[in-house]
Recover the amino acids of this structure.
């Protein structure tokens, strides 16, 4: 990070400390939010800071959680996050999954009583940096209607996969099962911008490009019933399996302060050489073959998931983070 980014990181960290998080937990949160800005995902960055602080003030996020870590086996761990902020629960969970995988070849961690944790790819990348494969699931507040229903129930429930690539740029696929993620719609609503066509319906079931109407309506899943099925799968793995809320019970972090979210997360971390000893050579060959395919007109390079994000991160490291006026105002209010 450049000096301006470091200064911004310190401001965010101090805001979390002011809201009674420990210095270590405040740093974990600031790291995640600034990273989102640097990788070009502002919908999961500083635009959410006020929301986290509001939830702490309303006592639906516990700033001083007593997190319980239950060892089920050498490979499997279950974590009760005690309504901690999601960044902290996920950081502990991924570190535990990594340690389990290093010892046994595979680490499986289920987390309950957590909250929104930002970008799934941020946690997958932690494992990939240790030369491990990672799969991450988390559920979210209702946004997508199950196929055949007209009421939203599933979250945008991201699916995330990461693997080492035998190069400095990791393969990180981090995608919501909605056409666009909800964070982008929230940012558009706050900045009075239109959203693309074909991503949402209003509360009457009509297509809309109005972000506020989309938030009150239904987001559309990718690939029709297939996207709806994937959202259901993630809801089962991260909610039903872990003990977290599920089937529409996860509370909206911006609008519902009636209680904690109780989001569930599931992390699976795998040693890449479990079955064969030359994974790095094989993944390198895999990527090389695909990149050598004939390209469509106008396509200079076939990119694997994570390459664009890495390039944005490297580019943004030496640039000033652009903060919208309304978020600058939030930072000032939260700092004093």
């Amino acid at each position: 990070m450049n000096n301006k980014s470091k200064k911004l990181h310190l401001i965010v960290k101090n805001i979390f400390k002011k809201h009674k998080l420990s210095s270590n937990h405040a740093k974990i949160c600031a790291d995640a939010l600034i990273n989102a800005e640097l990788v070009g995902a502002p919908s999961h960055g500083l635009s959410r800071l006020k929301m986290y602080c509001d939830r702490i003030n309303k006592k639906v996020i516990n700033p001083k959680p007593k997190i319980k870590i239950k060892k089920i086996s050498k490979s499997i761990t279950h974590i009760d996050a005690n309504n901690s902020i999601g960044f902290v629960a996920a950081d502990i969970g991924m570190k535990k999954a990594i340690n389990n995988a290093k010892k046994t070849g595979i680490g499986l961690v289920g987390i309950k009583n957590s909250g929104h944790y930002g970008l799934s790819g941020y946690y997958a990348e932690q494992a990939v940096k240790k030369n491990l494969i990672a799969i991450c699931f988390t559920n979210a507040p209702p946004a997508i209607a199950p196929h055949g229903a007209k009421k939203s129930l599933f979250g945008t429930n991201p699916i995330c996969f990461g693997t080492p690539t035998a190069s400095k740029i990791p393969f990180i696929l981090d995608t919501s099962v909605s056409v666009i993620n909800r964070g982008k719609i929230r940012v558009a609503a706050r900045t009075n911008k239109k959203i693309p066509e074909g991503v949402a319906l209003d509360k009457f079931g009509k297509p809309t490009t109005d972000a506020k109407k989309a938030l009150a309506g239904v987001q559309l899943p990718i690939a029709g019933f297939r996207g709806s099925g994937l959202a259901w799968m993630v809801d089962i793995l991260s909610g039903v399996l872990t003990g977290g809320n599920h089937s529409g019970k996860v509370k909206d972090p911006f609008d519902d302060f009636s209680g904690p979210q109780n989001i569930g997360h599931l992390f699976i971390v795998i040693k890449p050489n479990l079955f064969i000893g030359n994974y790095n050579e094989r993944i390198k060959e895999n990527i090389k073959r695909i990149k050598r395919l004939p390209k469509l007109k106008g396509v200079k390079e076939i990119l694997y998931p994570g390459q664009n994000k890495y390039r944005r991160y490297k580019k943004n490291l030496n640039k000033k983070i652009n903060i919208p006026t309304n978020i600058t105002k939030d930072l000032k209010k939260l700092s004093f």
Observations:
- The first strand starts at residue 68 and ends at 71.
- The mean pLDDT is 95.
- The radius of gyration is 20 Å.
- Residues 232 and 254 are 23 Å apart (CA to CA).
